[in-house]
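User: Could you write out the 3D structure of this protein bound to protoporphyrin IX containing FE? I've included everything you need below.
Assistant: Certainly. Input first, then the structure.
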Amino acid sequence: MTLSRTLCFIATLSLCLSLLNTAQANPFTDAEDAVKYRQQALSMMRDNFGIMSAMARGDRDYDAEQFKQRAKAVYHLSYIPWDAFQGVGERVTENSDALPVIWENWSDFESRISNFQQAVQELVEAADSGNMREIRPKFMTVARNCQQCHQGYRAD
Amino acid sequence: MKVQVWDGFIRGFHWLLLVTFAGLWYTGGNIDFIDQHELLGLFMLALLLTRIMWGFVGSESARFSTFVKGPVSVWRYLRDKSATTPLTHNPIGAWSVIALLTLLLAQALTGLFTDDAIFYQGPLASWVDNDVNRLLTRYHKQIIDGILILVAIHIVAIFVYRIRGTALTWTMVSGKRQTSEPLAQPKLVHGAWGYGLLAVNCLWIYLWLG
Ligand code: HEM
């Protein structure tokens, strides 16, 4: 590869990345779409979390493989809803339960997001152990993250 | 003159209610204790249903028909508090008992339909759709404030009676009321029947919802 072609490649790549970057900050043009998107992601999170909860609380037999899968799903989902709170998603719409303080305390909201993601990652790691005694405290930590964020930022 | 006004069931009910309520207040909204909260809530439901049934079939002093009075009597009582000597609750107190039982029942019933959006759904949550779950969960978080206000009034009233020389708390322990005015002994039903009823209510509620 000649030097000029390499430079050209790098330039194109960085252009693409920067486009991606601006696109990422504002993926929606309609506020209701943004709201629907984040709510769907959050409710999928809940569906997966609910099954794990039934196992952690003994309402359902513990199945290590299934639990791991669900934990991974929550992990992936823990990265999904948040960009829909930006751009047009910053408006409070009729169908949304998001409280306006989110945007007043944006940096707190962001740090809750990263704490939450961290907690889910630790849960995924604990799930590998296949030992419910190790898993349960991690699971409850994640649940506490969900609850505390809702108390501050989601309408009852 | 000493009159036995409260039967064994009413006295036990009252203190069980207090302990159960304290437990529910402590565990409510705490995700670490949600299973205990549910269990206590179901027990509370059994307690309340039994008290309501006892209010129709239990001792004379415990019957709603004995102490719940219409607005005219309430008015007459307010105008002249010494005109009548109620066997148990005075007309105002009677309505606060009804209000408290109603709010507690509403609290326990809405609890059955709760959905915390994280990992818990009440045993009857699937009966209704999501919006109703949302609404009833919100009520569940609001009604408690009304209950706490009534409880506060209840406690203040007991203090006021105490200062004026009537020891109500002890009456709820011994069941006996000291009075200078003549008071007919009410017909009491043995408390064991109440506890039997409570056991039956606990059983079906637990088997159905537990
Ligand atoms: C009279 C009986 C009950 C009392 C006094 C009571 C009291 C409470 C209190 C004080 C809270 C906290 C509210 C808040 O966070 O603002 C609560 C929450 C809760 N209760 Fe009860 N409760 C009762 C019965 C029940 C029952 C029978 C159930 C379910 C079977 C239940 C399920 C729940 C749930 C799921 C929450 C959490 C709601 C949330 O945070 O989203 N409760 N309760």
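The beta strands of chain B are 2-4, 176-178.
User: Perfect, thank you.
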